[in-house]
Design a protein that fits this description.
Rossmann fold, globular, 147 residues, 5 strands, alpha/beta
């Protein structure tokens, strides 16, 4: 496994996904671990009221602070990206573009958009992603063979 994308939002579920991605990177020598946050936009919408003051660097966005702290404590390098659009479609396109081997996502999100709350992002990812998808639930722990 070379490239892993972890979907990050403001929910505790995405923290479980971040921890799973970090453990995968640590246990399986993942070459590139990315935390990706998708800001939902409606058709024709240019900006977003949810993030009126967007930091220039993705690593400075509040949504990444807790997952980045955990990654830094374990010494795992992480690249952060903020993308705009429909969560599932944007993650699928991004995974294809980056030639990802795995997308890690929490089982539910709290992004405020109805489709994400209903779990359709995870469903659409499993149906259409160009790579494997790991859907984690709270309490997920990876059994690392080398630890």
């Amino acid at each position: 496994m070379r490239k892993v994308i972890v979907a990050i939002d403001e929910s505790g579920y995405s923290m479980t996904a971040a921890q799973a991605g970090i453990e995968l990177a640590r246990c399986y020598a993942v070459e590139e671990l990315s935390f990706v946050h998708v800001v939902p936009l409606k058709p024709g919408q240019v900006g977003t009221a949810e993030y009126p003051e967007r930091p220039d660097l993705p690593e400075e966005w509040p949504v990444f602070q807790e997952p980045l702290t955990i990654a830094r404590e374990t010494g795992i390098p992480v690249h952060c990206e903020v993308l705009y659009g429909n969560a599932a479609e944007t993650l699928i396109h991004h995974a294809r573009e980056k030639e990802a081997d795995l997308i890690v996502v929490g089982n539910l999100g709290e992004s405020g958009i109805k489709e994400f709350l209903l779990g359709s992002v995870a469903s659409r990812l499993t149906a259409h992603a160009p790579c494997s998808v790991l859907i984690v639930r709270p309490g997920f722990r990876l059994a690392c063979p080398s630890c």
